[in-house]
Design brief:
Keywords: Aspartyl esterase, Cell wall, Hydrolase, Secreted, Signal. By secondary structure, this protein is an alpha/beta fold. Helices cover about 15% and strands about 30% of the residues. It contains six helices and 25 strands. The strands form three sheets. The protein has an eleven-stranded parallel β-sheet, covered by helices on one side. It has a seven-stranded parallel β-sheet with strand order 3-6-9-12-15-18-21, with no helix packed on it. A seven-stranded parallel β-sheet has the order 4-7-10-13-16-19-22. About 45% of the residues are buried.
Amino acid sequence: MGKQLSIAFASFLLVTIAFTIKAQTIPANDAEVNAWFQAAVKPFSSHKRTLESNVIEAESGGVQIIDVRQDGKGKFKTISDAVKHVKIGNTKRVVITIGPGEYKEKIKVDRFKSYITFYGTDPKNRPTITFAGTAAQYGTVDSATLIVESDYFVGANLIISNAAPRPDGKRKGAQASAMRISGDKAAFYNCKFVGFQDTLCDDKGKHFFKDCFIQGTVDFIFGEARSIYLNTEIHVLSGDPMAVITAHARKTPTGEGGYSFVHCPVTGTGGHALLGRPWMEAARVVYSYCTMSNVVKPEGWSNNNKPQFQKTMFFGEYQNKGPGAAGKRAPFTKMLTAAEAKTFTSLEYIEAAKWLLPPPKV
């Protein structure tokens, strides 16, 4: 009897796991994505079963809200002051609501201040966080206007910009990041990242971007993180002889890192852009169900003049469309099968069931 119960429980568990993984798989039809997301990523009140215990603790019992308003009607006028107000070792969700306007600040959320949310109060009039730091001044990764090193960060309804001049190929250290995210388990919703070279340093950890916009020229999404970008426009600026969207930095084929773009329009004109090149020898980037304009060059990818990397890097595509998805790809490009693509088109890729919640409602 006990053995039969064990077998029955094991069968139930396998069915449950299979159902959970299927439920987390992003649909091929982009018109179904939002409804699927609402069903797959439920609010905290109905999503406790799979969440990590520390996430349950952080989200329980209400959240602390800190208002930032430039007109003086909030607790603080600057975002930096609001971040300073969060105690070191914080274990509860703190939502920093940010009113419309331009906030000229260089902000750092250090690793001891987890569970912070930056929430733009008006999705149609998003606050802009901007600064003009360059690699020459701070180093590339520390040039970012917003640096987040803590875990469980959420950004919603924001514009994050680096206002430094566009690199001209002559000035040394002219590259300038808008954002660096180095903490684990971070999510961004309806955010716009504006820059030229090195716009978004998607540095390390598991991350999720939905309904965002990322603009740049060269290596404008770079780092070693393991991230899903969903329904996020990747906009390539014209004017440079060559543009590169990603420069991934996975160091070994067994490393966890890798960018997965799903239902992401790749926009721009000029036929001068590459989908990616390796920063480190085992770079991993996959585009699935993406519509690509003719900004993308026919070969699609580069080995960055390091043919030895071709044995370890992983550049894949699955069911993309548009003029930029046509043409003869570089020979090391992997055209994935449905089975191979499943890894990159499921929320399981970032273990989302353990931590991911929908955009906050404040």
